[in-house]
Amino acid sequence: MMHAQRLQIENRAEPRVVVKLPGRLFYGPGLVMWADCVIRNLSASGAKVDVAAVFALPSRLVLADLRNGVAFDVVMKWRRGDVAGLQFQARHELRSEVEERLAGVRGVWFGLSGLTPTSPPAVSAPRTSAPLPPRRSSC
Fold this sequence. Notes:
Blueprint: E1 17-27, E2 33-42, E3 46-50, E4 60-65, E5 70-80, E6 83-93, H1 103-113
Antiparallel strand pairs: 1-2, 1-4, 2-3, 3-6, 4-5, 5-6
């Protein structure tokens, strides 16, 4: 005898996209504590991540999408084992300047991405003395 499959209908405000992106959750004073995670799905208002249950995470965190260079201030809405649901509070582009509290997150992203922050071109100091004449050989 075959069992009928239960159809689950989700009532969501926004559609979610199934992804598999490398992420990192930052937390604690100065955001110096972190846990690697996998972002499993994204919507306009949040994300579902896989993160080891061994990490005792606070309710407020920063989620860094390591592939796309974006960080989100998030609130953890639920957690079951190794899976957590996060609600976005704010979005930060890590390629641009960020608030001081996110400087470490941005630095980690640059380090892991292999990119370097763009900096203004170096300006040479003005000369304070005349240039030296070329050296002559003694031959």
